[in-house]
């Protein structure tokens, strides 16, 4: 299948020190219908690339500050992040059996908040 695999739709939400990333698609357009491309392939992963804003150059594949997470799910929680720090995220589809990667989604950036861990003395 030589079709270009477009970028997935991505939503990014910051919550209690973590970033929640949701993604769907890409879709194959057929007349009025949209079908998730993952239905056409046996193996399908999403690859999440994330980094601290301003910490890396534009070539994400070789940049040292970029963390990569592969998942089979449609969402992922990025934890172990520094609080009050802006992180940027891009996602692409990966089809291992075809050794093929899809186009990267556009960059989304969000600031993390405090991680919400309270000290013992604060608990009533």
Automatic annotation (TrEMBL):
InterPro entries linked: FN3_dom (IPR003961), FN3_sf (IPR036116), Ig-like_fold (IPR013783), Interferon/interleukin_rcp_dom (IPR015373), Type-II_Cytokine-TF_Rcpt (IPR050650)
CDD domains on file: FN3
Tree of life domain: Eukaryota
Protein name as annotated: I10R2 protein
Taxonomic placement: Eukaryota, Metazoa, Chordata, Craniata, Vertebrata
Pfam families for this protein: Interfer-bind
UniProt GO MF annotations: interleukin-10 receptor activity
Recorded GO CC terms: plasma membrane
PROSITE patterns: FN3
Organism: Ptilorrhoa leucosticta
Residues covered by the Fibronectin type-III domain: 4-116
């Amino acid at each position: 299948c030589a079709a270009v695999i477009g970028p997935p739709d991505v939503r990014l939400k910051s919550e209690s020190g973590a970033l929640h990333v949701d993604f769907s698609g890409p879709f194959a357009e057929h007349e009025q219908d949209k079908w998730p491309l993952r239905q056409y392939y046996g193996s399908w992963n999403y690859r999440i690339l994330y980094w601290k804003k301003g910490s890396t150059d534009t070539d994400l594949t070789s940049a040292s500050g970029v963390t990569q997470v592969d998942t089979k799910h449609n969402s992922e929680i990025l934890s172990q992040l520094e609080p009050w720090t802006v992180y940027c995220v891009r996602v692409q589809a990966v089809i291992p059996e075809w050794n093929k990667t899809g186009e990267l989604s556009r960059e989304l950036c969000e600031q993390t908040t405090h991680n919400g861990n309270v000290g013992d003395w604060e608990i009533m």
